[in-house]
Amino acid sequence: MRKTLVIVGHPKLRGGSIANQIIVDALAEAGAEIRDLGAHYPDYKIDVSAEQAALVAADQIILQFPLYWYSVPAILKAWIDQVLTYGFAYGSTGKALHGKALYLSLTTGGPAEAYQPEGYNRFTLDALLTPLRQTAHLCGMTYEAPVISNGMIYMPGVSEAAALDALKASALDHAARLKAALSA
């Protein structure tokens, strides 16, 4: 695997997400560098220099996150705003990310059918991800096909035990699809 950097945008990965944690753990086992924003920056005071250095050292970058309100969680949005700056990521001298591959790896709680024009959420995930696709373009990155898993929700005390097993299997499948995409 080329040098892979995973930017985890889940605000509470450990103890807050079974699916995202399984995906991230699988990527770490495959040799990816993991930067857990929620753990590193619970106060949202991001070390811009460290994050930019990690990006420069990577060949391929994964943004790993659960879809929150049709977008990325606030910690990931803060990271984007603070780290992908003019002169570094874009602009006449902002070439640091040119040619690097960007993968979006995301989970949703709702089923795939909900993300259709006639579905509950009225928009496709491709439409909802347009700002991130444009961010990749602006930064000169190659926007790779997103790896998405829908229906990734488990509620302790509400969901049946079989639902937890199904969630874990889906998360492992997601990680396998992502690793396959990285190796292609």
Give a written overview of the molecule.
This protein is an alpha/beta fold and 184 residues long. The protein is 39% helix and 15% strand. The protein is built from seven helices and six strands, in the order βαβααβαβααββα. The protein has helices at 18-29, 37-40, 48-57, 74-83, 125-128, 130-138, 161-183, and strands at 4-8, 33-36, 60-66, 101-107, 142-143, 147-149. Strands 1, 2, 3, 4, 5 and 6 form a six-stranded parallel sheet that branches. Helix 1 (18-29) runs parallel beside helix 7. The chain is globular. The relative contact order is 0.18. The model has no long low-confidence stretch (mean pLDDT 93).
Secondary structure blueprint with pairings:
Layout: E1 4-8, H1 18-29, E2 33-36, H2 37-40, H3 48-57, E3 60-66, H4 74-83, E4 101-107, H5 125-128, H6 130-138, E5 142-143, E6 147-149, H7 161-183
Helix pairs in contact: 1-7
Keywords:
184 residues, alpha/beta, six-stranded parallel beta sheet, 6 strands, 15% strand
Helix proportion range: 25-40%
Number of strands: 6
The ordered H/E elements are EHEHHEHEHHEEH
**Which word captures the global form?**
globular
Low-pLDDT stretches are none
Averaged pLDDT: 93
Please give the alpha-carbon distance between the first and last residues: 10 Å
Précis, in short:
This protein has 184 residues and is of the alpha/beta class.
